[in-house]
Every structure is written in C-alpha cells, then in structure tokens.
Specification:
The complex is a heterodimer of chains A (about 450) and B (about 300).
Chain A lengths: L5 H17 L24 E7 L4 H11 L3 E7 L7 H11 L5 E5 L3 H6 L12 H4 L5 H8 L9 E2 L5 E6 H6 L8 H13 L12 H10 L5 E4 L2 E4 L4 H15 L11 H8 L5 E5 L2 H8 L7 E4 L17 E5 L6 H13 L1 H11 L26 H10 L10 H16 L5 H18 L6
Parallel strand pairs in A: 1-2, 1-3
Antiparallel strand pairs in A: 3-10, 4-10, 5-8, 5-9, 6-7
Helix pairs in contact in A: 1-3, 2-14, 9-10, 13-14, 16-17
Chain B lengths: L1 H15 L2 H38 L1 E4 L8 E4 L3 H8 L1 H33 L6 H13 L2 H12 L7 H4 L10 H26 L3 H9 L4 H29 L3 H6 L12 H9 L4 H31 L1
Antiparallel strand pairs in B: 1-2
Helix pairs in contact in B: 2-13, 3-13, 4-8, 4-10, 5-8, 6-8, 8-10, 10-13, 12-13
Classes of the chains: A alpha+beta (about 450), B mainly alpha (about 300).
Chain lengths: ~450, ~300
Amino acid sequence: MKKSKFLSAAAVAVAATIALAGCSAGSGAGDSGSDTAASCKASTGKVTLNFTSWVPNMDKVVALWNKENPDIQVKVSIVANGNSGTYKNFFNQLKAGNAPDIGQVEYDTLPAFRVQDGLANIASCSGVSDAKADFSDGLWNQVTFGEANSVYAIPQDSGPMALYYRKDLFDKAGLSVPTTWAEYAADAVKIKALGGNITNFAKGDVNQFAGLVSQAGGQWFSTDDGTWDVNLTSAESTKVADYWQDLISKKLVNTLPSFTDEWNNAYNTGQDWTWVSAVWGANTISSGAPKTSGKWAVAQMPQWTEGDKASAAWGGSSSVVFKGSKHPAEASKFLVWLNTSKEALTALNKEANLYPASSTGADLPALTSGVEFYGNQAIYKDFATAAENIQPFTWGPTMTQTYSDVSDGFGSAISGSGTLSDALSSGQTKTIAALKAQSIAVK
Amino acid sequence: MTVITSRRRAAKADAQGPKPKGGFRYRKAVAIFVVPFAVLFVAFYLVPILYAVYQSLLKIQRQGTFGAPTQVFGGLSQYVLVFQDSVFWSSILRVLAFGIVQVPVMLALALLFALLLDSPLLRGKRFFRLAFFAPYAVPGVIAAIMWGYLYSPSLSPFKFVTGNVDLLGGGTILWAIANVVTWVYVGYNMLIIYSSLLAIPTEIYEAARLDGASQFRIAIAIKIPLVVPAIILTAVFSVIGTLQLLTEPLVFRQFTSSISSTFTPNMLVYSTSSVPNFNLAAAFSVVLAVATFILSIGFLRLTQRKADQ
C-alpha cells in the first residue's frame, strides 16, 4: 500500500524526530527469551487493541469488527506509509516498549523487524494455523520465515506488478502497448518527441526497482547456513540498472520524487504516460490524477525476452502483532478476521482497492468486474494473471537501510553524478556494513 | 576617614547580622525557584545526553540472523566507525560551506534592518518590525513546504522562472535551502540586534549630533560597535543552527531528488537511527554535539580576543 500523503509524511517525519529525541529508558534490546511459540492465552474482560496502519479508510473496515465484538475493541491510527516514517516510528516504539498491539508491515520489511526482535510469534494462537490454507505457500513462507511452529504475521494484500498506461495517448500516437523492454525504450524516444515522458523513475522507489530486478531473474540476498550473501551487483541487477540509466541519461524519463503532489501533477496533466506498478497503484493513480479518469488501461509488464511471462511484486503488506502486546490472542483473532473473512476483504477492496492475499478474496465480485477509471477494464483479472507469474525474491534482514542507501545513490545518478550501477555497488558495501553492525554473519 | 570606614563596617555587620537566622529560609526560597528549572534540565537535557553517550558505547550481539539481539559493551568501536565514515564528514563540510555563506549574509541583513528600524528617518516602524519578524512565526515545516512549492518547476506560481532555472537541482539546492533559512531567521536576529540598539543611551547620539555626525556616521561609528556583542550572540546561535540543519532539507526531499538521506549531519543521525542502528546514531550525535560545542566556543574566543584588542 502506498499513497501520497504529503503532509502526513512530513508530519510523521517531524514527529519521529521528536520521538527520537525523547526516546529513552528503553528496556535494552527487549527480553531475550527464545521465540518458540509461546502459549497464547486469551485475556479476560474487555480488551482494547491499538492498530497502526496506512491503509486508507481502514477505520471504516475496523468499524465493522467493533460493532460485532464489543469485548475486543480495535482503535485504528492511520499514518503515512511504512518507508515514509512509520517504520521508523515502529522501531522507536519497540525500543521504548510502547509499540501498538498490531501494525502493518510490508513483506520486504518483515525480516528487519524480526532482526530487531519486534514480532510476536502467534503460531499457537487459535485460528492462526488454520489460516494457512487461505494463502499460497510462497506467501505463507514469507510470514513464517520457513521455520516450524512460527507465524509472525498474517498476509493482508499482495502487490503483483503490471504496466499502467495511458491508452488514449498511446492510441493517438499510433503506438501499441510495449511487450518487451526494448519496445518500451523505443517508445520512450517517440513519446519524448511528442513532449511527454514514458514514465517517472523515482529515486525513492528502490522496492519497485527490486521488483524489476526480480522480474529479470535476479536476487539480492541469499542465505546459506545462517550466513548471508549480499548480491546487489549481480548480472541481472546490473542489466536492469544499465537499462534505466540509459533512459535517465537520455532524459527520456521524468525523475520526480514519487507519491508527491508534483509527481501526481505530472500524471494528472498527461506529462507521464505509463507506470510500472503494483495493483495498489490503481488507487494511487485514481486519487492522484482524477482528471485522467477512463483514459488508463493495464497490460502485463514488458519482458526481457519476447514471449516470456515474468512478473514481480512491489509491496504487499502483512499485519503483525508486535512483541510486548498484552493481548496476542485477541489481536490474532482480529487479524484472522481482517485478512481472511469475506466481509473484511470485501470492505478492504471497496474502501482501499486492496488486492487480498487470501484465496477467499479471489472471487469477490469487485475483483472480477470492470473498473470505470480504467475504461471499464476488469483490471484485477490482469493482476491475478500477474500474480501467478511473480518471481520469488529473498528479502535481506536490513531492508530499510538497503533501500535508504541505494536510494541516495539513485538520487546522485538522477542529479548526474554517478550511475545506477554505482548506487548498487555502494549499496552493496553499506548493506554488508549494516549486517555486520547487527552482528549478522555475512560473506 | 576612620568614621566612614567604621560606619561601613557597621553596615557590613548589619547586612551579615540577620543571615544566620534567615539563611535556611533564604536557601529554601532559592531551591523553590531553582527546582523547576533543575528538574526539567536534568530530565530533558542531562539524562538524554548521558543516555546517548551510554548508547554510543554499546554494540549489538546475537546468535544467528534472528537470534534476539543483546547489547554488550563495545568500547569505542562505534566512534571508530564514525571517524571512518566519509559520508558523515562530507555532510559536516556541506553544512559548514552553507554556514560560511549563509550566516554572514543573514546577519548583515539583520543588522541592516535593525539599523533601519532604529533610524529616525524610517516611517511605519511598527509595521516593518512586525513584517520582518513575521516569517519567524511561521513553523519551520510549513515555511519549508511553502518554499518547496514556490521553487517547484511545475507547481510554482512563478513557473516562468522555476521552469527554466532548476532551483532544486544538485548544484543549487543548498542555496535554495539557505534562502529559506535566511527568510525565516533574519527577523529573529534583527530583533535581538534591535533590542540591543534600543539599550544604547540617547545621550551618546546627542553628543554625536552636537559634534556634527550624520545618521550614517552615527550608525557606523557608534551603533555598530556598541551592538557587536549582540551580533556575536546571533552568530553563535546561527552556527549552532547551521550544524543542526534538519527540517528544511527533510521537507525538501518531497520536492527534489537531490537531497540524500545523509545531506546534513542531523539527517544522517536520523537515517542511521531508523535503520535502526541506535548505537551508531548515538555516537554520531555525540561527535556532532562535541564538534558544535568546540566550534561555538572557538568562535566566541576568537571574537572576544578581537574585541579585547
């Protein structure tokens, strides 16, 4: 889930700074008890759970639950998305021992929270192991880290990627949808000649870039016997970097920071023509570029080899119970409802365009009918196809750091000093240093 | 003569007389006045600083990737990392370059405005005093957002300028920020200098005018030398503020790609702590605090020595 929430992002950033200055007297690194699924006892009496999320309109979905469960009341705070400051706040709150009971964490950042010992193991909470049947093995593996007797999160939505494009502009220019990256680059030249940009390459969206790398068959991390191998500069990774560097050097793409007013404006005024993004992006475009309603369409991602069908994931969130919550049983009960019940999934899709990770959600009527903003195309069917072709990708244990360092390098490349490849090599060095700082074995 | 001294002695004895009796009450009164400050000072200043120093001496240890992390004493290992970190030092050099240009410009403007407000030639003083000071009343985040929009190439009301000149590019962004900081703080510094001008006894001006000095001459030869202490004070504040630059660049990240997460020292501390690597972030802040302290004391010493000469 991502959404332009400019002011709240700034506010969170500032609040986080204040929180940072005030954070003290933490209990060190938390209780160092081992993580074997602790007993998950229900509390007695009325319970109030705090839930922090950046899903728009989450309060409306939670209201459905609160009405039917007077004894387990959930209080929602809607905040800026994770990488815009909320993860920082979570980390600080965990350190200070006052994290909310439940939080939203994207799959790529789950390991980072696990490394900080911030996630409660809810495997023995009732209903959790039954929920396994609702999710694909790949997704379930991400929330269990492949360990027995372990469940650290319940998958909420997934982020299969595809190509959003301005069908009207492509038709008018006599262009067909690019099916390969070579065609995409060729179209970029033609679109530039017409005064537009094929897309925007944002330095902050390193998670999008990771998706592009995984589509090309690359991996950034692998682990062997507990020792990590960091490989940001693999052949596939470099290929993707060089491809986009070429578009940036030739000034064929816009380079605004993403999810900002200026970035929205570029889409709203038709300067930027396409966006390689995840399913939740449907909501981002329709709210950020309302003037372009009905003019968009969705196609599968361009491929490196003609005829391939590779896709990737960008984002996708899970719901976690933070360590230190006094009510893991009630929190798990709520999360199972939120992420696997037809009622909640329908509401999440209606209110926030979430594409449910649970198979229960796959046949929701809203996910099979046409969407007006996208010219009545049944876009969720296309994303279902994309979801089947997602290439697996292993996330590193300090993704927030990797993203931030690579993003700095991307920023320099966009400003004309260095290249995207340089950014990956410096990201490589810094990631290894960060792993060492966390005392994690690394090759 | 002896009469006078004995009288003085008597007066002294009188002053000392009641002290042993009322001393306890007197000390209690002092305590009542000091305690609120002392409690806040200790709780929100000393304790956090000591906690940061303590944190900076620790490092993380764990078993395997997901073993629970424990903090163990790491000696000065975080400080070794700080001194090896070229990014940290280049961020310090960046804000120093910023300060060398921005602080003199800002203080020169502040002095000029203060002198204008103090000069009898200007009309509408009240209005101008408020107008110059108003930007300081705008919260820093709001000011930065506002300027961000003004600079933006496609959303600015001055598109004919910002569309052609990239004010947010890698080469100009530091000075775009300097402009915002100057806009916000000129009025504040002006007020400090102005209040110091108001404290100058008017007899001095009268004497100067009798000697035939013009307003300009009075400003150069009398007013400026007399407000030098105020200017030094504002300069020290500005140097500290420069090293702690955070809000403006942080907000500008929403408008431009040319600000990295390590653009200023404080931003580096912030991004390191959000990795999260609290120990290294603590070491960065301790080094930054010491550097700021040395720089301000050094500046004070330097200017005082000059003033003494």
